[in-house]
Design a protein that fits this description.
The complex is a heterodimer of chains A (264) and B (343).
Chain A (H helix, E strand, L loop, with lengths): L1 E10 L7 E11 L4 E6 L5 H9 L6 E6 L2 E2 L5 H4 L3 E4 L13 H9 L13 H12 L18 H13 L5 E5 L7 H18 L2 E5 L3 H6 L3 E6 L2 E6 L1 H5 L3 H12 L6 H5 L1
Parallel strand pairs in A: 3-8, 3-9, 6-7, 7-8
Antiparallel strand pairs in A: 1-2, 1-4, 4-5, 9-10
Helix pairs in contact in A: 5-6
Chain B lengths: L1 H27 L7 H17 L4 H24 L5 H20 L3 E3 L6 H11 L2 H11 L11 H20 L3 H11 L1 H5 L5 H27 L1 E3 L6 H16 L4 H24 L8 H56 L1
The chains are: A alpha/beta (264), B mainly alpha (343).
Amino acid sequence: MLQLNQIHKIFNEGTPDEKIAIDHVNLTLKEGDFVTVIGSNGAGKSTLMNIISGVLFPDIGEVLINGKNVTAMSEYNRSKMIGRVFQDPMAGTAPSMTIEENLAMAYSRNKKRTLRIGVTKKRRDDFREVLESLHLGLEKRLNAKVGLLSGGERQALSLLMATFTEPSILLLDEHTAALDPSRAELITNLTKDIVAKYRLTTLMVTHNMQQAIDLGNRLIMMDKGQIILEVNEEDKRQLTVPGLLEEFKRIRGVQMASDRAILS
Amino acid sequence: MFTSIFGSFESGIIYAIMALGVYLSFRILDFPDLTVDGSFVTGAAVTSIMILNGVNPFWATLVALFAGFLAGCITGMLHTFGKINNLLSGILMMIALYSINLRIMGRSNIPLLNTDTAFTKITHVAKHTGIDSLLNSVLKSVGLGDSLPDTWGILLFMIVVTFVIKFLTDWFLKTEIGLALRATGDNKRMIRSFSANTNLLIVLGLGLSNALVAFSGALIAQEGGFADVGMGIGTIIVGLASVIIGEALFGTKTIARTTLAVIGGSIIYRIVVTLALRAEFLQPGDMKLITAVIVIIALTAPKVFERTKDRKRKARRKAEKLRVLQAAVNGKGEQHATVKSDS
């Protein structure tokens, strides 16, 4: 489904600020895999997401989606196959447009955009139906501007928009980090439901170790641009937060350098 | 007085097409596009020179649309593929168009006074079908008979044309491509993650915007009876004034409402300028200054208004809270008293 071969990325190459962001990373996601990614700040998690989605291009290595080499494919072309939810709840929706218009844009993701009206009566019924699955009452507010929604509502809508066209790959980049705990839990549960419902191949970056353990069938830990630990389905069931920290210390010889990761 | 208001209505509704173009770039795409100062003249130049060469004026006016579209597309490409800052791309294109317009015209001014333009044809039709005499007799019957307009044809024709363009714009912004265009101005990152080519959409949007501006320029040249290489100076500010005034007065609840507001804004702007110029201490040359002042007022007044409203609301809430607190204290006091008397 998704294959990363020998991805290497350096920022500011040839300057004193040179930084190896991704250091020869290999990763394969099989269909239906739900992989959670943890790691401290600057470990390269977000860079990896940006390379998969085409915001950044790797210096070396290839990205394959459904067996097709998409390494040089532009971001907008690639996003026909990739659904994304960002950390910032403002980032995933168009605030001055209505809920139904936002959904209509998401609906056109894997189709050619034409001069047909975006929100037809039939589509509106479909949108109402998918919105009902969120249980937030948004189906009654189809004509409300998205900018008027709360952060949690917007993030739930972003999640729905990213997934209801069933993309080949779903990328979640700390999508609950900017929300308060109760809202974060709501989005986490929605994520679980939606990924299961559409059987989406998912890569989720998180700072929250407990969340990384609770969700998904595989877990990887990154540090300094490398994948330092891969936990498979069986071992992941036994995993605990102290266990993970212990594992990090064993591999790297130091304490994990992120208060945020430990505390959350 | 009535004739000058009538005149502002007439030119206001023609300039409204330009304002709709500015609305597309400035509001929908969030791109302050200065190309319009040049493309407005491009439209006038292309149409005038074609009319002089014997082309049917209606066709010549339509060609202006394409000329403007091309100019806007180039600005869009400078910004997207050339990665030049949006204001600078527009300024560059505006300067380039000045020379291009001179080349098209061959000289700095083309008079169209004794030529057949789209509007002389329409005036002719209006006179001979009896529309003019009918409407003028209505005016006479309400007591405005002493200052009758020359023709009703241009106004009626332009109302139809402008509203056709308005409805086309409304429709376009609701199509799948139109939604993606609006999202490009609203949240580029988001719409890119939904497989829209934002660069292409910016080029398309600026093309359409400048097509409307050039179309308006072509019509203004025919209404005024000349094309001049300097006639576009300040077009962007006039467009902004129309958009901002219209939005402030008529609201922005839906797209259809906003485009209507922009047309209204354009007409009101013309009326304000006409009335302002009647003041004795002002000269026709002060027009740009008046425009700038109008835009400044339109931009700052709503904020000041909002702030005072906000302050009043806060004061009211504070007073209310104090009253509640006071009541609570009093209530407690009474309770306390009753308890005491019991004991």
